Amino acid sequence: MTALFNADTNGTATVTGMPLILLRLEGAAMLAAALYAWHLTGDSWLVFGLLFFTPDLAMLGYLAGPRAGATAYNLVHSYAVAGLIGAIGLLAGAPLAVAAALILAGHIGFDRMLGYGLKYPDAFGHTHLGKLGKR
Q1: Distance of CA 80 to the CA centre of its chain
Q2: pLDDT of the chain along its 135 residues, tens only?
Q3: How would you write the chain as a 3-class SS string?
Q4: Cα–Cα distance between 58 and 70 in angstroms, integer?
Q5: Are the beta carbons of 70 and 92 closer than 8 angstroms?
Q6: Going by C-beta distance under 8 Å and a sequence separation of 6 or more, which residues neighbour residue 108?
Q7: Contacts of the segment 125-130: beta carbons below 8 A, 24+ positions apart
Q8: Cβ neighbours of 77 (radius 10 Å)
Q9: Cα separation of 20 and 28, whole Å?
Q10: How far apart are CA 127 and CA 122, in angstroms?
Q11: Number of structural domains found in the chain
Q12: 8 in any annotated domain
């Protein structure tokens, strides 16, 4: 039987095989859904494009060390945060919050599709979707 996850030298499990493929496909689906929802809003694609990578500013947390960096990155790259911002925006009638949530959800989906997962506190390249870089 093939292992569904691998444990690294720290004993931390990362997903491999079909579950990894499904997680990446989920990311692609989230990106597609966010793009379609943005289309429905009629908002500017230029704004979407200009703001698409702003969530990566959370990586500046790594200037304070890997634990702080992972915490900042994971808070910003959480579907729960994007959903909360979107829900608040919908309930409050705040289209700017809805727009921010769509950009954030699309960005997270894009990252996950490419294999950039949530970070472990030991190193930026150590994610729940595996190690970044050469294997």
Answers
A1: 10
A2: 445 545 555 656 678 899 999 999 999 999 999 999 999 999 999 999 999 999 999 999 999 999 999 999 999 999 999 999 999 999 999 999 999 999 999 999 999 999 999 999 998 888 888 888 655
A3: CCCCEEECCCCCEEECHHHHHHHHHHHHHHHHHHHHHHHHHCCCHHHHHHHCCHHHHHHHHHHHCHHHHHHHHHHHCCHHHHHHHHHHHHHHCCHHHHHHHHHHHHHHHHHHHHCCCCEECCEEEEECCEECCCC
A4: 9
A5: no
A6: 27, 30, 55, 77, 78, 79, 82
A7: 126/8, 126/12, 127/14, 128/14, 128/15, 129/14, 129/15, 129/20, 129/23, 129/24, 130/6, 130/14, 130/15, 130/16, 130/20
A8: 23
A9: 13
A10: 10
A11: 1
A12: no
For the chain, how many residues are written? 135
Q: Which residues lie across from 14 on neighbouring strands?
A: 6
Question: Does residue 87 belong to any structural domain of this protein?
Answer: yes
Q: Is-above-0.85 flag for pTM?
A: yes
Laid out side by side, the sheet with 119-120 consists of 119-120, 123-127, 130-131
Q: Look up the domain containing 65 and give its range.
A: 21-127
In a domain, 40, yes or no: yes
Is 134 a domain residue? no
